[in-house]
Amino acid sequence: MTKKRIVLGVLITLGLIILLLAGLVLIPPVFSSEKSYSRDTVLSILSGEVMVMKGTGGEWTKAENGMKLATSDSVKTGADSYALITFFEGSTMTLEPNTEVTISELWRSEQTDSTRVRLGQKVGQTWNRIQKLTDSASTYEVETPAAVGSVRGTTIALAVEPDGQTSMSVFEGEGRLRAEGIEIDLPTGMESSVVPGAPPSPASAIPTPASALRISVNPAAWMKVVDPEGRSTGRVPPGIIVNQITGAITSGYGSQTQFVEIPDPHDGIYSIVLRRPDAGPINLVIEGLANDGTGLVPIFRHERQCQSKKGEKWRLDVEVFTVGGKLDHISVPEKIERLKGDEPGEVTVTQAAFDGRIAELSNQFDRKYTAFKDAVRQALSGQELALVFTEEEIAGKVMDWAAGPDNPAELYNMEITLNDDQIGRGSARFKYGAIGGKLKVSVKVEIESGRPLLHITGIDVDLGKLPVAMGAFKDRINREAEKITWNLNADLIRVEMSDEDIVLTVIKR
């Protein structure tokens, strides 16, 4: 393959990433993969002393933060210790004090990407956030002395007493508890318990907590809350949900206002880390909730704001005070400060979690676009319709397309932005075989005769000493863009971009 064809393939790849999305012409926002994601199962020490046994019949030794775990390894926490296991497929298990678990199986099919994670929980309490299982062959199971809990997602608590009595609580998603040949289903908000030698008890509702701390941020930002034990809950770049705090609830993907709700918080400092993927305001709301017998009702509310540049990290430390084990009040600094020093909280993002997030966003994009096309077909002539995508959905579609089998190059550190003058700019590093470099493309979007019109305004490729004939590549990308058809019986009349959404408005012909 000639050098010219190599560079041409890379340019066409990123050019089409910027220009083409499922037959629509859009400019995606920032969605940058800034780091290498783990493909291993990793142990994180959140606080205190954690011990590990490598293999069956080994000796307990002091664990190291970030060490890799494998099948037959065991982990146990001390009296005031918390640990986190992040599995290769993206699920996490938080170990509370005096807990011991063993990894029974870690398996992935190279043909189907099905996964199996099986664990043994001897004693103690764990909080499990299970990566969404995409097929029936994938499993996540925890065996205790009394039962086997299997989960399809998303968050469950498992408690094992010294005598083996086991309780399982499903906070989100669904799970199953099996013992003595009897299996019961546990939907969201339900729990069951079992003693050794007996079947599971009938499912019952999880009790409402006595109080809760609710923290929300708007507009779209990545917010992570770290409790006094070092457990993190919220969202981390590039928008991955994490949940290490037992019983915590986080907002789902696509929510315009991100929130974290922590049940029965205790005395101590809760650190809030904030970061916007682009420049703009951050509006933070911190509320206290108390159970009045009918449910959780507000008892206080604090608001803080800051103006963030792109990529800046911010921090606010909130001190919680309780009375009789129930949230009473909090102390909140007057200002959100820029993060100085190390970021609190241990979070490992796996490649599988990143890929799953991309696939989920891409699917959301496809569902919205399919529904929109159906609506256009059924609309009356002259009817106006709007298609609304979130920034994350568009970015996910772009990244999914970029990772597809037709992509001739590996792209990373990709970033795509749109200015107020409708000029989109994309940049990325790339690797094509043994050749790597930097790539920048600029495009202007206009509307002409009810159709999107594109102009490539600039291309810059850095291949070190290799010569680059820019004119030929620019013409080729423009020719590729001209092949795109507007497959709707409607005229595009405007494209509007806000901090969070892109809105395309059409009129049925």
Explain how this protein is built.
- α1 packs antiparallel against α3 (391-402) and α1 (3-19) crosses α4.
- The protein has a 15-stranded mixed beta sheet that branches.
- A hairpin with a 3-residue loop joins β33 (490-497) and β34 (501-508).
- It is mainly beta.
- The chain folds into three domains: 3-35 and 356-508, no CATH class; 41-205, Jelly Rolls, CATH 2.60.120; 211-338, no CATH class.
- 14% of the residues lie in helices and 48% in strands.
- It has helices at residues 3-19, 351-378, 391-402, 470-482, and strands at 41-47, 50-53, 61-62, 68-69, 74-77, 82-86, 92-95, 100-108, 115-129, 139-143, 148-160, 166-179, 182-186, 190-194, 204-205, 211-218, 222-226, 232-236, 240-243, 249-250, 258-263, 268-275, 280-291, 296-308, 313-323, 326-331, 337-338, 384-390, 410-418, 423-432, 435-448, 451-462, 490-497, 501-508.
- It starts with a helix and ends with a strand.
- The protein has four helices and 34 strands.
List keywords for this structure.
48% strand; 15-stranded mixed β-sheet; Jelly Rolls; 509 residues; mainly beta; 7-stranded antiparallel β-sheet
In angstroms, what separates the terminal alpha carbons? 47 Å
Q: What is the approximate shape? A: globular
Classification by helices and strands? mainly beta
Instruction: Supply Rg.
Output: 25 Å
Return residue spans where pLDDT drops below 50 for at least 5 consecutive residues.
1-34
